Every structure is written in C-alpha cells, then in structure tokens.
Amino acid sequence: MLLTSPGLPPQHAIPLPAATSNPTSGASTPAGQSSEKKQPMMMPIHSPHQANAMRNMHQHMSPTVYEMAALTQDLDTQVITTKIKEALLTNNIGQKIFGEAVLGLSQGSVSELLSKPKPWHMLSIKGREPFIRMQLWLSDANNVDRLQALKNERREASKRRRSTGPNQQDNSSDTSSNDTNDFYTSSPGPGSVGSAGAPPNKKQRVLFSEEQKEALRLAFALDPYPNVGTIEFLANELNLATRTITNWFHNHRMRLKQQVPHGPPGQETNIPTRENTNSTPFDPVQFRILLQQRLLELQKERMGLGGNNPLPYPPYFAAAALLGRSLAGMPGAAGGAAPNEAELRALNQKFQEQMAGLDLSMSSLKRERSDDFDDDLDDGHMSENENDSLDGETEKSGEFKALSNHAQQFLNNMRLNRRKPAAPQWVNPAVPSGQAAGQSGESATERLLNGEESSTSHHHHQQQHEEDMEQNQREEEAGDAPHHLVMEPEVLIKQEKEDCESDSLKEANEGMARSQDEDVASASVTSAAAAAVTNASAWNY
DNA sequence: TCACAGTCAATAAT
DNA sequence: ATTATTGACTGTGA
C-alpha cells in the first residue's frame, strides 16, 4: 500500500529535462480505456516508516493536495500569493527554488502564478493545487529554513562542481537539477533528428516579428475563434505554420481571459469571451486593409515620431468588431464575390471613419528586430508604397488582385464549420457515470468519496447506502489502489453565479476543519490536514 | 480535430 | 541573477 504523502509536490520537474511525456502515465493504460489518471499519485514514497504511522485519522489518510483542492471552496488566491511573495522576498528566496521544491513547478510557472493568480473559482482542481501547496507552505513553521537550507546546499554543490571540473554529477543531495546541466540528450520521441548527439533538438522558440504579431492581434480582434479556413489564410499570409497560428490563438485567448479578473460588479469586459463572438466571420479583404494600415503606422512610428500612445488593444477590439459589423452590411464585402474597387474604397473610408478616434499605434514597439519589415508578409508588396495607400486608388488593383485568389477560395471554405468552443470546465466534478475520472477501477470508491461526506466523516451523520461501501473502501485502500483518491466531489462550482453554494462541500470542509490551530485563517483549508501534511515532510527539501 | 487548462522552458527584460 | 513573457506541448474531454 502506498500512502501518498499528501504534500508531495509532483516530484520531478527537477530532473527530467526534456522528456515531456511524463512518467505519470507510465505503464498502466491497458489497451482500451484511456481514462488516464493524473494528479498527485504515485510517487516513490520516501520512507515507508512513518507513512502509515500518523495516518490513522479514522484510517483515512489525510487528504491529498488534490483532495484539498477539490474540497476547498473559495480561497483567496490573491492573498496567498501576496503572502508568498512577501515571504520569498524578505527571505531572499527565488521563485526557481521555491517552485521546484514546494510547488513542483518551473520558475516561469511560478512567476505567472504569483503575479497573476487566477481567482479561485476560475481554477480547475488541478490548477488549485499549487495554491493549496502555497497555503500549506505558509503554515509550515520551518518553511523558510528548509528552503534556505536547500539553497545553501545547492550553492555548495555547484561550487564544488565548478571547481572540480566539468564532470562529476553531484549526487549527494537528491535535489540536483541546477543550472547548466540539461543536456540529457534523451529527447525520446521523434528521434529521427538527434543523430549527432550534440544538439538535442532544442526547442527553438520562434519569435514573431512585430508585424506578425500585429497581424495576429488584428486577426484576433476580427475573430477570436478563427476556423480552419481563416487559420490557413493567416498561416499563408504570415508565412507561419498553421500549428503556430492556432497555438497563438489559443494562447492569446487564454491569456486575455486570464487577466482582468477584477471588475466584478457587472462590467463584463467585452473581451472575446467564448463563442457567440458574433461579429463578422472574418473577412480577408478587410483583414488585409486593416493590417496594411497598422503596418504603415507601425513603420511610421519606428521612424522616430514617438506619438506612441499605449493601449491600443482592448478598445481596438471593440472598434474592430464594430467595424466588422458595418462592413458586413456592405454589398460585396464578405459577400463572396471579389470586391471591386468602389467597394474597396468604401471599405477604406469606413475603416477610416471608424478608426479615426482610436489609437491604433503600437504600444509595444520596443525591441524591434531590425527592420525586417516586410520580409514576412509574403509577397512583400505589402509595404511598397507607404505613401499612404488609403485614399489613392492606385495601388489597389494590383494588390487585391493577388489577394482575390486567397480571398476567393478562402471565402469558400469559410463559414463552414464554426464550431463553438467547449464550455469551460473549471472544476468539473462529474464522474457522471461510467468510468470517467476515477479509473482506480472500482466505482465504489467513487461513490463513496464523491459528494458529501467524502473524506473525514464517516462517523457522524447520515447516508443510507454507504454502510458497506465503507468497507469496500477500506479494502481498497489496503489493497493497493494508489490513486483512488480521485474522488470527484460534487464541486461543480460552475463558473459564475452559484459559485459559493455547494453545501455538500461546505459540510465536508467543516468536518475536516474541526480542531487544531487556525492561524491559516482566511483560508478554509483544513488546518488539520495542513498540519498533517506539514509535518509529514511534504516538500522536496 | 478543436478548445482548454496547465506547464515547460527559451528568451527578454530588469 | 531573478523575474516576466510567451510559443509550444501534454493531457482531457467533447
């Protein structure tokens, strides 16, 4: 039996560099059923001793972080991160070490978590775990000391290594990792490349040029949920892989949503916000025109003129949508037929009017990567005459001739599929039926844990049916079922509204919370659990 | 296959 | 040296 010691952060994150595939899914997974598990389980368990020692609380092991994350309703992530930041700062502890040792996350992730914590109700259970860990860490008396110790340890290790020559993989202290190693040429998957053994296919992060970014932002403003046709069109225009385009859209959507968590009182920003992105279906012609303008401006700005004004975007979006709507009503535009000059001119006009008051200037004009200005906009003819394309009717013909091809076919596959984004699945409890989450096999467990009384309690109150369940469960625990805690409480916090209702949870929480100190205050994390976890030497120190 | 949530990890910026 | 940003990837679910 392996009791997963609750607080253990997802181990690794330290050792394996590239091997993204992750151990978690390891062997299991028989053929069929995919229903993988994820979450905390299976870790090597250091020290079998004490493991079961403490864990007698009603023979129920203390909740795992996952469970806590699932059962905790409402936690102020902002407060937690503030405390953490403060603690790290005053003790001179870096995000890197904190992330690795406490959260099991990389520096970048920690940074994001700390600086832009998503509100609790927006987090999935998985996403809540780091916050639970932070909370637990905060309530750990020796938290700082331990990290400090670890820090020293590492420093010495690296020092030693440096002086003793290149090889010599430190070792003593489990927590190796460290800077400068990382070449584990292991790069498993693709294989093919590698060969030379030297440059393990690095990741090579492709940087977009300002122009490309601008184009993407524009496209996003016009249609945050582009369909395949649009994606392809963009990929073509910008000379990027479609995969890259979709990645960008995904990332952008997510990151946009992530910020602006405040402003609770009414006031829903009109960020794209999922599906019904009504507005127009994205018109390549329109896109080109707008883009051209943007690029011109961009260029202008680059050449001195610092008329730059920040924040073009949010407003920009609204404007674009607006624009789109008006254009939609126009004859040829988006109609399907290649636009003629008159129309184009009209479009431009419209556009100008609409955009008149806005500031479309680039906010982030910093870091210009040496005027590669037009190299990426395919045929380059984009920027040729910067003599203010608008108004003149000269350049249109040539330019749009080229475009009409794209546009043409584009418009064809357009409007087919416009799939609506799946509903957000925050804390999707569910376990609707079938195997769903659990997968630890036995449904008994699920049922048992699921919903109300779940952990803690079985002594007091209720439940008609569970008598025997209890037993089942016991057996299971004893048996092996490592994960099993996959319980899926009826958290169902379902985004907005009703977010704080689920009484079942409340109950559970209360149950768990009985006794013990309470300095953790603000949080409703069960302090009991916290204590247990804490002294169970949970972290990676 | 798409969207999404989380993360990683290479770079940028401080 | 740290922290912030961000393109890409993995695991899920529909």
UniProtKB/TrEMBL annotation:
The listed locations are:
Nucleus
Coiled-coil zones: none
Compositionally skewed regions (Basic and acidic residues) per UniProt: 463-509
Annotated Low complexity bias: 167-200
**Segments for region (Disordered):** 1-43, 153-201, 258-281, 370-396, 424-520
Q: Which residues bind DNA?
A: 201-260
GO cellular component entries:
nucleus
User: Transcription regulation: present as a keyword of the record?
Assistant: yes
Its primary localisation, in coarse terms, equals nucleus
Its BP terms in the Gene Ontology are: cell development; generation of neurons
Instruction: Give the keywords, sorted.
Output: Coiled coil, DNA-binding, Homeobox, Nucleus, Repeat, Transcription, Transcription regulation
List all Polar residues biased stretches. 19-34, 267-281
Question: At the top level of its lineage, which domain of life is listed?
Answer: Eukaryota
Q: Is Repeat tagged as a keyword?
A: yes
Residues covered by the CUT domain: 66-153
Q: Where is the Homeobox domain?
A: 199-259
Entry GO MF terms: DNA-binding transcription factor activity, RNA polymerase II-specific; RNA polymerase II transcription regulatory region sequence-specific DNA binding
Q: According to its UniProt record, which protein family does this protein belong to?
A: Belongs to the CUT homeobox family.
Q: What is this protein called?
A: One cut domain family member
